[in-house]
Structure formats: structure tokens, C-alpha cells
Amino acid sequence: MAKSGRAAPSAATTAAKALQDGLVVASHGRHCIVETPSGERLICHPRGKKSQAVVGDRVRWQPSEDEGTIEQVLPRRNLFYRQDEIRTKSFAANLDHVLILIAAEPEFSEHQLARALIAAEAERIAPIIALNKSDLIEPFERAWARLAPYRRMHHGVLPLSLKASAEADHASLMKLLAGKCTLVLGPSGSGKSTLTNLLVPGADVLTQEISQALNSGKHTTTSTTWYWIDEARSTGLIDSPGFQEFGLNHIAPMQLAGLMPDIAEHAGDCKFYNCTHLHEPGCGVIANVETAEAPGAISASRYRIYGELFAELSQKRY
Ligand SMILES: Nc1nc2c(ncn2[C@@H]2O[C@H](COP(=O)(O)OP(=O)(O)OP(=O)(O)O)[C@@H](O)[C@H]2O)c(=O)[nH]1
Ligand SMILES: [Zn+2]
């Protein structure tokens, strides 16, 4: 396979039958850009529904003319996706981390954050929460306080100021991301492009080239894109739009507690094995929710989100 990546257009016909290895580094609609083991990139189309690939997928492909056809998507370690009533949107596959970037400003939605964390947990992908714009002192303090329950969970919350302390932030991010593949998600304005450009100088230019290639010249940045942070191509960063309306229809209501670590921690202490933690007597979760009178391990806002999501996910099933 040593020369498998060098399928130049003219060589395509002779090499036609051999399947080659590749990594999907961008996708838009049904088209993908596939990177060969030697680092060359070409546009590929899926053979059929079964070979519909997403960024991060390892595929087997075949050259055709100056493009390629994806014949096979290799088994995935995980797939990060959201699902609402109408459709499923896959973000990326084979991830080590989902980095959720929020900021002191604009104010983040705790619901959206909780949903993204649940989706990551469901696919056993380690989440990292980073709070950007620590230079905006007061809004940052407010946001940091709102994140108290999240600072106690997972790997905590990483404070950043991508503009004011870029060098220090670069170092702390690289400690977490080196050698891994990470999907960056976050609401508009949180600093995703700033982060990508800090870790991958020139990323914005590359993005434009890729989206132009995939959209036959139209200027758009709506595609999901993979970047290599290092020259050795061992650390991957994936940028993806679409943090809003993070649908969790693929998750059953009774699964929910197990996917919220602070709630899961007390869900084993309930009197009933099939406790919904909404109203049952002897519920270990309810007993640990903080109230105005008594502190508790589960914050009131997290428990409220649990209840709302439980109701939302119950409506969608019979
Ligand atoms: N004060 C402050 N502003 C920042 C910081 N990091 C980024 N910004 C600014 O926040 C704004 C949004 O940053 P972007 O990197 O474009 O955010 P984004 O998440 O890519 O936004 P979308 O493209 O809308 O999704 C820009 O004006 C940045 O200059 C920071 O650490 N502190
Ligand atoms: Zn319970």
C-alpha cells in the first residue's frame, strides 16, 4: 500500500481496481474530501447509502477519473451526533474528545451545554469544557459561577482567554489534546475560529479552500473540517458548525440519569430499581438535590434540566 495515496488522475484508470485507505477530512452533503496515508487529498463520493461517511471516518476508496468513490466505511469507534424529530446530524466519528467552547460573552445556554455533554457521554467520548474570555472580568465571574456544577464533574472547566493569553492557552490546550482527535463545538461567538487559528495557523485559508472545493466555488463555511495540529499528523482538530437545537431523540428517557454523571452518582441509591428520579419515595437523586434550605451534591439547575429532558424524550416515544 506504500504508494496507494499517489493516485494521480492519469494513473487512475490503471489503479482502478485497488481499494485504497483514506481518512475523511471534510464533508458537505454527500461529498467528502479524503486524505490518503501520504497526505494527498481528493474529493470522494459515496457508492451508496451504506458508504456515506463523516469526518473522522476511515474509509476504503477507489479512484475514478480525478475523484474517488468511497466503497467502504470502516467500523467506527464512536459517532457523535444529534437527532431531532426530522433528522439526524452526524458531526464526526472516531473521536477522543469533544471540546465544548463557551465564553463569558455571549452568555451560554446551560441547556445546550448539558445536551452536548449527554450526547458525548452516550458515545463514551470524553468531554472537555472550556470557558473563554476570562479577560472580561465580570461576565467571566458570572459564567464561572454558573459552571460550578460542571467544574465538579468531568475534567472540570478550563479557563481561557484566547485573545489575551494565547501562548499560555496554547500550552494548556496542547496538554489535553496532543496525540488525540478532538471535535470543537460551541455557540456562535465563543471563539471557535480564534481557537482553531491559534492551534492551526492558516486554518481559515484552508477552510475556504476546502469549502470552495466541496461547494463548487461557492463561499461558505458550513462544512465540518479536520485539521492536523502537528506536522507528524498525530493530533487532529475538527471544527463543526451546529451547536443549536441539540436534539437528543436517540436517547431513551430511562438512559438519561446514567449519562449525567452528577445524577448517576446517586441513582444507585434509590428504593426502586426503575426509579425515574422525578417523584418516587426513597429516591437517592431527589435526596441529593440542593434546595434553598440545604446544600446538596446535585445543583437545582442540573436537576431541572434532567426533568425537562426526561419529559421531552418521553413525549417522543410510545
Ligand atoms: N475579549 C475577548 N474576545 C475574544 C476572545 N477570544 C475571541 N474573542 C472575540 O470573540 C469574537 C468571536 O470569536 P470567533 O473566534 O469568531 O468565534 P466563533 O465561535 O468562531 O464564532 P462563529 O463564527 O460565530 O461561530 C471575535 O470578535 C473575537 O475576537 C477572548 O479571549 N477575549
Ligand atoms: Zn431515584
Automatic annotation (TrEMBL):
Cofactor(s) in the UniProt record: Zn(2+)
NCBIfam families hit by this protein: ribosome small subunit-dependent GTPase A
Protein name according to UniProt: Small ribosomal subunit biogenesis GTPase RsgA
Alphabetical list of Gene3D superfamilies matching this protein: Nucleic acid-binding proteins, P-loop containing nucleotide triphosphate hydrolases, Probable gtpase engc, domain 3
Xref: HAMAP family: GTPase_RsgA
Assigned EC number: 3.6.1.-
Function: One of several proteins that assist in the late maturation steps of the functional core of the 30S ribosomal subunit. Helps release RbfA from mature subunits. May play a role in the assembly of ribosomal proteins into the subunit. Circularly permuted GTPase that catalyzes slow GTP hydrolysis, GTPase activity is stimulated by the 30S ribosomal subunit.
Places the protein is found: Cytoplasm
Organism of provenance: Variovorax gossypii
Domain of life of the source: Bacteria
Family matches, as InterPro entries: G_CP_dom, NA-bd_OB-fold, P-loop_NTPase, Ribosome_biogen_GTPase_RsgA, RsgA_GTPase_dom, RsgA_N
Domain named EngC GTPase: residues: 93-244
GO MF, one example: metal ion binding
Amino-acid positions noted as binding Zn(2+) in the UniProt annotation, renumbered to this chain: 270, 275, 277, 283
GO terms for biological process, alphabetical: ribosomal small subunit biogenesis
Primary location recorded for the protein, binned into one broad class: cytoplasm
A Pfam family per the record: RsgA_GTPase
Protein family membership: Belongs to the TRAFAC class YlqF/YawG GTPase family. RsgA subfamily.
Positions with a binding annotation for GTP: 132-135, 186-194
Protein keywords: Cytoplasm, GTP-binding, Hydrolase, Metal-binding, Nucleotide-binding, Ribosome biogenesis, RNA-binding, rRNA-binding, Zinc
Domain CP-type G: 82-246
Cofactor note: Binds 1 zinc ion per subunit.
PANTHER family: SMALL RIBOSOMAL SUBUNIT BIOGENESIS GTPASE RSGA, SMALL RIBOSOMAL SUBUNIT BIOGENESIS GTPASE RSGA 1, MITOCHONDRIAL-RELATED
Signal peptide boundaries: none
Gene Ontology CC terms, in alphabetical order: cytoplasm
Subunit structure: Monomer. Associates with 30S ribosomal subunit, binds 16S rRNA.
